[in-house]
Write a structure and sequence with these properties.
With 321 residues, this protein is mainly α. Helix content is 83%, strand content 0%.
């Protein structure tokens, strides 16, 4: 992510995202034919290159396209669509007849989107050029010196670790502990990401209206943690759906503000947003990788009650940080 973001500052986000698509889309097709753990791991690592190039450059791209007064709405729409993909995938996964069909469906969709991006995507609107080019080390030097960028990265790491732990284990936990059938359990898990979808839209607009990111994030972290944990404590049904929707909306309002933080910082702005976004995305993805598996998995094992307590506490940690 750090390399991808810095390259985006140097060569423009369109080129870096296109390169990621050229590497990542073949990996999606190869994944459908993986016949062993190592083949599957290899394709997932290739797919990770796509994520490493798209994630850090998203904020820069929108920052180049929209003036400050429109940025909240633009990011709201962007994150709404991002979480819509997560929501749909969780809701429909159980209905695919095989892993092959699920993997091929996602590969074909991404191929179509990749072609559209390469043909139609642009760095800036007509009549506006990219900022003057500097050596790559200059972009990275400015971003790495900003304590606010590192703080945003730590918050993103906590958020992603908590979210991946909750969403990743929730459907299985419902099946094992409450005996809920997989299709219904998957639907319940998708309610949380549906809330994330609404939160992704509301979050940037909420910060602009309140004019205080700090106080907004404290409220979202505390209330989101409470409803996220409460959703696990009730039987599968209407009350669980309400708690999942509230928890997902409140916590989902956090991440768009963290990802777009570089554009709000005077020392970063659109010029250094790729490098700063690379640092934040690196920490964010490290939280998604290490926290659920190596930390929560080691502490809680298959104790789902403890896993969701830890997820709620991790969301709560965002408030004091």
């Amino acid at each position: 992510c750090i390399i991808g973001g810095t390259l985006g500052d140097r060569f423009g986000p369109k080129r870096m995202i296109a390169f990621g698509l050229v590497v990542g889309i073949p990996a999606l097709f190869l994944r459908a034919f993986a016949a062993s753990y190592w083949q599957l791991l290899g394709t997932m690592l290739m797919l990770g290159i796509l994520m490493a190039l798209c994630g850090p450059n998203a904020a820069k791209l929108i920052g180049l396209w929209f003036p400050k007064k429109q940025m909240g709405l633009a990011f709201g729409i962007f994150f709404f669509m991002t979480m819509a993909g997560n929501t749909v995938s969780l809701a429909v996964t159980a209905y695919f007849p095989s892993m092959y069909s699920a993997f091929m469906t996602s590969a074909v969709i991404m191929l179509i989107l990749g072609i559209l991006w390469i043909l139609l995507g642009k760095n800036t609107p007509e009549g506006i050029s990219l900022p003057a080019v500097m050596p790559m080390k200059e972009y990275f030097k400015v971003a790495v010196k900003s304590k606010n960028v590192w703080l945003g990265g730590v918050l993103a790491m906590l958020y992603m670790g908590a979210t991946m732990s909750f969403v990743g284990f929730f459907a299985t936990g419902l099946n094992v502990v409450q005996g809920v059938v997989p299709s219904t359990a998957g639907f319940m898990a998708s309610i949380y990401t549906l809330g994330n979808m609404f939160g992704g839209f509301i979050g940037p607009i909420l910060v602009e209206r309140i004019s205080s990111m700090k106080h907004t994030l404290i409220f979202l972290a505390i209330s989101g943690a409470a409803f996220t944990y409460l959703s696990w404590t009730v039987p599968a049904g209407t009350l669980m759906i309400i708690f999942l929707l509230l928890g997902g909306t409140l916590t989902g309002s956090i991440i768009p503000n963290l990802v777009t933080l570089p554009l709000r910082l005077k020392e970063i702005g659109p010029v250094y947003a790729g490098s700063a976004g690379g640092i934040i995305n690196t920490l964010q993805l490290s939280g998604a990788f290490f926290i659920p598996t190596f930390i929560f998995g080691s502490i809680a094992g298959e104790n789902y009650h403890l896993i969701f307590i830890l997820s709620g506490l991790t969301f709560l940690l965002i408030a004091p940080v």
